[in-house]
């Protein structure tokens, strides 16, 4: 998943286990090495390198390391020493240990993304058809140009994408409601619910 950072660039999201900071390898590596390792995973995800980092790019993986105060090559050696990173002499790449155990190969990732996009398209159509192509909030007839599917309880507020939490919505209502619940939106006077809450 990508989103826009404050500087306008893409933010690459990575998966880390909630106990990763307490893993013995991470604790032995130390905080600077852990930071570089996390940045290396993000680098691999962003540039789809299959967990490989060319030796010539180790210094640019994480701009958070001040080259004057930390030795990037010493950090890389520390990561190799604890088993979080490997070096392939034949390819000249550093390889993140067990990368494919967590992240699928790009071809598999593309297939998953296509399947997810198709499932979401089908789910969206199912919600629009279930709600008779009418906005659940104001009742306006929906067309392909103004049809949205809204999360009644927003994802940011703990809602999910279960069909019971999804409703057909016109663009105007969906954008006006934003991350509010229908009740909060109604209290602000923004909701014209056709039948009450």
Concise structural overview:
With 197 residues, this protein is α+β, with helices and mostly antiparallel strands. Helix content is 39%, strand content 14%. It has a three-stranded antiparallel β-sheet with strand order 3-5-4.
Please characterize this protein's 3D structure:
The chain has 197 residues and is of the alpha+beta class. It folds into 2 domains: 101 residues, no CATH class; 82 residues, DNA Binding (I), subunit A, CATH 1.10.30. The protein is 39% helix and 14% strand. The chain is built from 7 helices and 7 strands; from the N terminus they run ββααβαββααββαα. The strands form 3 sheets. The protein has a 3-stranded antiparallel sheet. α2 crosses α3. The longest helix has 25 residues. It is elongated. The chain starts with a strand and ends in a 10-residue tail after the last helix. The N terminus is likely disordered.
